[in-house]
Amino acid sequence: MFVSPVWGLYSHRMAFLNDLVQSLLPTQCPLCSLVPDSPRRAGLCGPCESLVRGRLRMTTTPPSVVRCWTIGDYDGPHGALVRLAKYGRSIRVADYLGLCLGVALKEVVELMAVDAIVYVPVPPVRRMRRGFDQACRLANEVSASIGVPVLNAVKRIDGREQAGRTGSERRELGVHAFGLRAISLPDRILVVDDVLTTGATMNSVARVLRTAGVSHVFGAVIASP
Ligand SMILES: [Zn+2]
Question: Is the pLDDT of residue 158 over 70?
C-alpha cells in the first residue's frame, strides 16, 4: 500500500503534537495510571521511572549474532512502553526507552569495542503511518549515551508486514527482508531494535552485515519474552 511522503510528514507532526499536549497537561503515568506531582521523562511517575531504567541481561541470541541484550520483558513495563511508543505514536516514550537502553549498555559496549550502531528499520508504510521510526529513535538515544555513531546501513527490500505471521513464516521472510546501503562498514556493529521475539528479524540483519564483512554483530533490544 502506498502512503505519500506528505502523509508521513503529517503523521510525524501529529505524533510530536501528541507528545507536546501530554507533556503540558497533568496526565496519568502511562504505567500505573497515577497522576504524579512531578512527572519524569515520558510522563512516568518516580517509581515507574526507576522500574523502567531496568537491568541489562542476556536474551536469546540469534545464530548470526555474538551476544544479544535486553533491559526488560515484553509482558512487563518495558513491553507496555514499547507498545505505547509504537501504537500510541509517542516519540518521547521511544526516546526515553532508548536513553534507558543506552545507559544500561554503556559498559558492555565499551568492553565489546563496538564501532557503530545499526537499527532495524520499520517497513516504510508503518513509518509513514506512525510518523517516525521507533528503532531509529532508540538507536539515536543509545548513540548519544554511549558515544558511538549510528549508521543508516540497512534497508528493507521487502515491505511485507511480519506482524501476525507464525515463527516459521517470519524465518522464511526474514532471509529476504533486508539489504545494505552502499556505505563502508566497520568490524564491530551493535544492532538495535525495540523487541526480540523469535530472533528472525535480528538474525536477518546480522546476516547481511556478516555477508558484507562485518566480523562481530551484537544485538540490543528494549524487551524480549
Ligand atoms: Zn507510575
Answer: no
